[in-house]
Specification:
four-stranded parallel beta sheet, 2 domains
């Protein structure tokens, strides 16, 4: 059996967990390539017009994997335990959306479902998936715990590396508030990172953070956010905002949760320069580069003025 993993959505959050789990079980897998123009075109062709850009990209990656593997891995996530939190509906519905989009192809899907409100924990989900893959309970349990440790180590190293940059770099530091599936995407997010690098700035990522601490700190900005992933990003702002010179809010068009949360952030944070970038998948980066250049120039002028006053 060969499993295909779409390089989109939750891949950027869980790829270490997933890949280590499959490797420990001896399950062959392939990951779709970095997002490119063709993959976006595939997604835009098959997804409904109302889908956000990130959903279209995900559909494009699924489309690429068809006929290249036996099963396509499409996990479903709804809740993680907090009774007042949910994830965006696209993560809850993605299994059904993809299944119905390609119903004529009789698409074979490998999936798990995490919905702690209904007692479907991550461990339970992986155990069910391992059983479907033909592995015994001991094999699956061992693979899961090894994968969880690998995931934990990866996250700790990422956070430590970012903290080192915050402490040691003398460059302008710009906090990028973005879901990992946007900012890590080669086609839509990487141009932002490349432009900031060209402008001699350090990009600090809000998604690189201790998630538990971030959700606690989110209360400083808003105590009522219902979306788990947005809540983590808001908490990261609270953790990092005094260590950076400016904030870039990045979202994909037309994401409902991001548009609401970003508007709230702009209104409530008055002590830091903020810019809102909405990714729409259009070709060309000239407009984005111009906005970032102007934003960085404003921050540098502001710092120079502050230094003169001191």
């Amino acid at each position: 059996m060969k499993v295909g993993i779409p390089r989109a959505f939750l891949y950027y959050r869980y790829h270490v967990l997933w890949e280590t789990f499959f490797e420990e079980l001896g399950v062959e897998y392939i990951v779709s390539p970095e997002t490119n123009k063709d993959i976006l075109r595939r997604g835009a062709t098959h997804a409904i017009d109302e889908s956000c850009l990130s959903s279209k990209i995900y559909t494009g990656h699924v489309d690429y994997l068809i006929d290249k593997c036996d099963y396509i891995f499409i996990p479903r996530v709804a809740t993680f335990g907090n009774t007042k939190e949910i994830v965006c509906s696209k993560f809850q519905a993605i299994y059904d959306v993809i299944k119905n989009t390609y119903r004529e192809k009789d698409l074979k899907i490998l999936y798990y479902s995490i919905d702690v409100h209904n007692k479907d924990t991550e461990l339970k989900a992986f155990m069910k998936m391992g059983k479907f893959l033909g592995k015994n309970k001991a094999q699956v349990l061992k693979a899961y715990y090894i994968a969880k440790q690998a995931e934990k180590t990866h996250k700790i190293l990422d956070i430590r590396n970012q903290e080192k940059v915050l402490e040691e770099s003398k460059k302008l530091k710009i906090l990028i508030v973005s879901h990992p599936y946007n900012i890590y995407d080669e086609y839509v997010g990487k141009p932002i990172l490349d432009t900031l690098k060209d402008l001699d700035c350090e990009a600090i990522l809000a998604c690189v953070v201790d998630e538990k601490k971030a959700k606690e700190r989110a209360k400083v900005i808003s105590a009522t956010l219902p979306w788990t992933f947005n809540k983590e990003l808001v908490g990261a702002i609270s953790i990092y905002k005094d260590k950076v010179d400016g904030i870039i809010l990045v979202s994909s068009f037309p994401c409902g949760p991001d548009s609401l949360v970003n508007e709230m952030i702009v209104r409530r944070l008055k002590d830091k320069p903020i810019i809102n970038l909405v990714l729409d998948g259009q070709e060309g980066t000239a407009g984005m580069e111009t906005r970032l250049e102007s934003f960085v120039d404003i921050i540098r002028l502001r710092k120079e003025k502050e230094d003169e006053e001191e």
